[in-house]
Design brief:
Structural class: alpha/beta
Shape: globular
Largest sheet: 7 strands, mixed
Radius of gyration: 23 Å
CATH topology of the largest domain: Rossmann fold
CATH class of the largest domain: Alpha Beta
Number of domains: 2
Strand order of the largest sheet: 7-6-8-9-10-13-14
Distance between the termini: 90 Å
Strand content: 15-25%
Helix content: 40-55%
């Protein structure tokens, strides 16, 4: 009788354990899939879903499948805040990825901090994100202030001494500009123009002309895709070819070349990840091939950062043997691991300190890696 009585709660307990184990580990994220950054957000969505599908093919994590809940925030900050409340309160996700763009991420972090949810930021890098005293936010790639370091080193080594830095008015672009100014001064470069412009501007002819008149030999545009394209068109219009043209974000996309054709050649940019047939990086190559097979297009670094964020969460969960948020937060704060991006490790603020950017340049219709030397596939070309 005693054994029979004890067996009932034991059976119930095992049943509950089995049922819990069968429930998926739920992740949540919002992306501006129909907003101004839709192309980049779509790349991120594809990266997240590729990781989800590959993990589930391997049997999941801790014997549980992975499910990513993705909402379209339309690049609207109020939408983002409301949707992260829904992810936490209604969907009851276990863990969270950050949205795309530094502005959107800044908007939702007060929500995630309130509920003490660890957030892996896979689509934002403004330095300001790490200066607010948040305890649950962790970056996976180097902050925006260091984006142009590789280019500046290459430019200085080429004999360029005078540069112009122009930037859009958003937080991300400002972070790039401020960091670029500081690093340019360290490299001994002379900044002949440092100027902000409105993000909504489509014509940058006057800014380009001002940089030319100031005597700049190198021009750096801090912004997103539209700014990179607009400035390149303005350079063509005023018939000025600076010795070096660098623009953030936009030139890493194939659509930059598709839009500009040969005018895209010799443009420099910073990338968080690149695939090249001459690089001996098996995990990165496997990701590239899987993405290309799944979607029929080349992944940008935005897709790679999303996939890498999944890999980092996976490593933390396996190490913790749980999705308990406090334990995951501790591991994201302290662990060193790797992903297809390379090394992961953060400082006391959650800012990434182990990863570094790659500098690319369009040469003859193809992206080449021109910095760092260890990964170089071609030497930089200056006009």
């Amino acid at each position: 009788m005693v054994n029979r009585i004890l067996s009932i709660p034991l059976l119930l307990m095992f049943s509950m354990i089995s049922q819990a184990a069968a429930e998926p580990i739920k992740f949540g994220v919002t992306l501006g899939l129909t907003g101004k950054n839709a192309e980049l957000a779509d790349m991120q969505a594809k990266g997240f879903l590729l990781w989800q599908n590959e993990v589930n093919k391997r049997g999941g994590i801790l014997g549980r499948n992975v499910e990513i809940v993705i909402y379209d925030d339309k690049d609207n900050k109020d939408n983002g805040k409301s949707l992260y409340e829904i992810l936490i309160q209604k969907d009851k996700v276990d863990l969270l990825f950050g949205p795309y763009s530094s502005g959107m991420t800044a908007a939702i972090l007060p929500v995630t901090e309130k509920y003490e949810y660890p957030v892996l930021v896979s689509g934002a890098s403004s330095d300001e994100l790490w200066k607010q005293g948040y305890k649950y936010v962790f970056g996976i790639f180097i902050p925006a202030s260091r984006y142009a370091v590789g280019f500046l080193e290459a430019a200085a080594n080429s004999g360029i001494t005078d540069i112009a830095i122009v930037y859009a008015e958003d937080a991300f672009s400002k972070s790039i500009a401020q960091g670029t100014k500081e690093w340019a001064e360290r490299f001994g470069l002379n900044i002949v123009l440092y100027k902000e412009f409105k993000k909504t501007r489509e014509n940058l002819d006057d800014i380009a002309l001002e940089a030319k008149t100031a005597g700049a030999k190198g021009l750096i545009v801090c912004g997103h895709f539209d700014e990179a394209v607009a400035m390149r068109l303005s350079l063509e219009k005023i018939r000025w070819k600076p010795k070096a043209y660098f623009a953030s974000v936009g030139p890493v996309l194939q659509s930059y070349y598709d839009r500009l054709d040969t005018k895209a050649n010799h443009t420099f940019s910073a990338s968080q990840w690149e695939h090249h047939e001459r690089m001996n990086m098996p995990a990165s190559t496997a990701f590239y091939n899987a993405f290309k097979n799944a979607y029929g297009v080349d992944p940008s670094y935005h897709a790679a950062t999303a996939y890498a964020a999944g890999e980092i969460f996976e490593a933390a969960i396996k190490k913790a043997k749980t999705v308990d948020k406090k334990q995951i937060k501790h591991l994201l704060s302290t662990m060193n691991t790797t992903s297809i991006l390379g090394k992961y490790g953060v400082d006391s603020t959650g800012m990434q300190i182990k990863h570094y950017t790659i500098t690319i340049q369009w040469q003859n219709g193809k992206k080449e890696i021109v910095w760092p030397k260890e990964l170089m596939t071609s030497k930089p070309v200056f006009e």
